[in-house]
Inverse folding.
């Protein structure tokens, strides 16, 4: 706002207020006394301009944006540690709480999954914990251990929330209030769970079920009475609960919510991440009872979006010195980047459309490619429309 209020401008205004009968030339007494004052006033205007910029959400730097967000009950997401699966041979050795490393990154074994398989946590917070799989080296001698290997990312680590993402959450907080299990509430709570990248909320997702069809008829009641005494207690207890809930017309489709998620790398969520989100939002052992973040009466199911492998076939014209042998990896990387951009938009759209024109554009952007023709997606020459809960993953690029 005050970027044009410079030292020269201030000094000129000050000298203009001095009568012309006095000497105002540079080096004169009047000029020498006004000049330092003009410098101090310029500094004051610079600081005032800074205060104004830091006072508004769209121009504040990170430090002051965090303070502004706190007024809305928003804090930046902190960096989280990756959880991975480690496989250890032989499988009868207990490696709980042992530390390993790959290069400069250290890991600690947290708990056992099954014999020979353990959850392993990266000791360094952030996405760096997602970048290494393979053989681990124990930091202390473990008698009898033959091999230790990281094989899979269970819950991806995340870096501290980017400033612009935080700024967007700040502005989004004015558009729709998160309250009492509305859609915004589910989105905020689920996306805040470490390892979750995107969430799609589906209300009354089992509306294809008719409550009337779950009311037992006379023949069903006769069958129930004839068989219940022959069942073991666990099965009988379950059947009793279902039968009487149906008979008393307590079974309903109201209050059912489906959360479909992607991990923080915008890929398919692992079973471990799905189970973790389920426990945080609505534990299965107390479904609908309000023991998680979901309101009482909301029965929440958590699933992952399904991966849709897409193979790309095309006819390319190359510059001299280029061909499939030296450009294959770059072409696949270019198409993968396009698919990643689509996955980032998945939660905000009804369904994704993989467009051949975009695939061609990405491949044309690879140095050495002159022309692209006859591109097909999964052997079809048309754009590929995915299901509501599907995301594209590259199945390969070939000529």
């Amino acid at each position: 706002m005050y970027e044009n209020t410079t030292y020269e401008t201030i000094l000129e205004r000050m000298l203009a207020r001095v009568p012309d009968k006095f000497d105002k030339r540079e080096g004169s007494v009047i000029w020498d006394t006004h000049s330092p004052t003009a410098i101090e006033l310029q500094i004051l205007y610079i600081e005032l301009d800074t205060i104004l910029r830091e006072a508004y959400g769209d121009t504040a730097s990170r430090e002051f944006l965090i303070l502004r967000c706190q007024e809305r009950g928003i804090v930046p997401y902190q960096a989280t540690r990756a959880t991975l699966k480690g496989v250890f041979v032989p499988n009868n050795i207990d490696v709980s709480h042992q530390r390993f490393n790959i290069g400069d990154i250290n890991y600690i074994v947290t708990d056992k999954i099954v014999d020979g398989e353990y959850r392993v946590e990266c000791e360094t917070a952030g996405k760096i914990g997602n970048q290494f799989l393979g053989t681990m080296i124990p930091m202390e001698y473990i008698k009898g251990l033959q091999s230790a290997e990281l094989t899979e990312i269970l819950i991806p680590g995340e870096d501290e929330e980017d400033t612009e993402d935080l700024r967007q959450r700040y502005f989004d907080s004015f558009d729709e209030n998160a309250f009492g299990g509305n859609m915004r509430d589910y989105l905020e709570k689920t996306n805040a769970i470490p390892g979750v990248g995107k969430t799609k909320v589906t209300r009354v997702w089992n509306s294809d079920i008719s409550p009337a069809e779950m009311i037992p008829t006379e023949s069903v009641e006769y069958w129930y009475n004839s068989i219940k005494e022959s069942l073991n207690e666990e099965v009988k207890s379950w059947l009793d609960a279902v039968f009487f809930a149906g008979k008393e017309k307590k079974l309903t489709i109201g209050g059912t919510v489906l959360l479909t998620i992607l991990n923080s790398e915008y890929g398919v969520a692992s079973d471990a991440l799905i189970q973790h989100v389920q426990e945080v939002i609505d534990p299965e052992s107390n479904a609908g009872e309000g023991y998680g973040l979901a309101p009482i009466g909301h029965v929440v199911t958590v699933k992952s979006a399904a991966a849709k492998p897409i193979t790309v076939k095309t006819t390319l014209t190359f510059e001299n010195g280029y061909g499939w042998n030296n450009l294959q990896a770059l072409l696949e990387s270019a198409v993968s980047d396009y698919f990643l951009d689509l996955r980032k938009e998945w939660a905000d759209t009804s369904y994704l459309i993989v467009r051949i024109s975009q695939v061609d554009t990405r491949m044309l952007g690879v140095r050495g490619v002159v022309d692209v023709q006859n591109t097909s997606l999964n052997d079809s020459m048309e754009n590929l429309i995915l299901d509501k809960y599907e995301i594209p993953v590259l199945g390969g690029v070939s000529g």
Remarks:
- The first helix runs from residue 7 to 16.
- The CA atoms of residues 25 and 64 lie 43 Å apart.
